[in-house]
Amino acid sequence: MNPEAVHFPGSLTTKIMASIGLFVCLLLAIVAISSPEKHWMWLIDAILISAVAIFLIYAWPSEIITDQHGIHARRFFGLFSSYIEWSEVRGVTLIQEFGGLGARVGASSESLLITDRTGILKITHTPRHPDRQRLLLELKQHGVDIGALPKA
């Protein structure tokens, strides 16, 4: 255990809701497969169920960890992870999650996008993560230019 590590876990409520949604997708897939419908109907069911499952996996909030070496993000039970060393962090930008869909329905959707110098590795701190100001402080302390981000 690293005493210098700061954890920013994703929202447990979001993880529970996404888990329930994935379980429902699994049940619907079983029903669709066992249905005596025509085969082309299975394809439509499979596409719709897969789209919802992919969205739920994408919406799964990562656990963000900062330490003396860099910033880590682990998503979806550790199956997807990212790591950016402090010296490789290019910057932080403010984005609208899901294209601002949340803002259109009255939910918070402002997220911090942390990218590496290549622009390939990205770590996102969403509204479903705690303590944005602490993350910004960690970034500043490690020499990352956070620019003129608004105080959240």
The helix fraction, in percent, is 25-40%
Spatial gap, N to C terminus: 30 Å
Instruction: Write down the overall mean pLDDT.
Output: 83
Poorly predicted segments: none
**DSSP summary: helix tally:** 4
How much strand?
A: 25-35%
What order do the SSEs take from the amino end to the carboxyl end, as H and E? Answer: EHHEEEEHEEH
The CATH architecture of the largest domain can be named as: Roll
CATH topology heading of the largest domain: PH-domain like
CATH class of the largest domain: Mainly Beta
The domain tally reads: 2
Q: Largest sheet at a glance?
A: 4 strands, antiparallel
Rg from alpha-carbon coordinates:
19 Å
Rough shape?
Answer: elongated
Concise summary:
This protein has 152 residues and is α+β, with helices and mostly antiparallel strands. The protein is built from 4 helices and 7 strands; from the N terminus they run βααββββαββα.
Describe, in plain words, how this protein is organized in 3D:
A hairpin with a 3-residue loop joins strand 2 (63-66) and strand 3 (70-75). The chain is elongated and about 60 Å long. It has two domains: 12-57; 62-141, PH-domain like (Roll), CATH 2.30.29. With 152 residues, it is of the alpha+beta class. The strands form two sheets. A four-stranded antiparallel β-sheet has the order 1-2-3-4, with no helix packed on it. Strands 5-6-7 form a three-stranded antiparallel β-sheet. The protein starts with 5 loop residues before the first strand and ends in an 11-residue tail after the last helix. The chain is 38% helix and 25% strand. It contains four helices and seven strands.
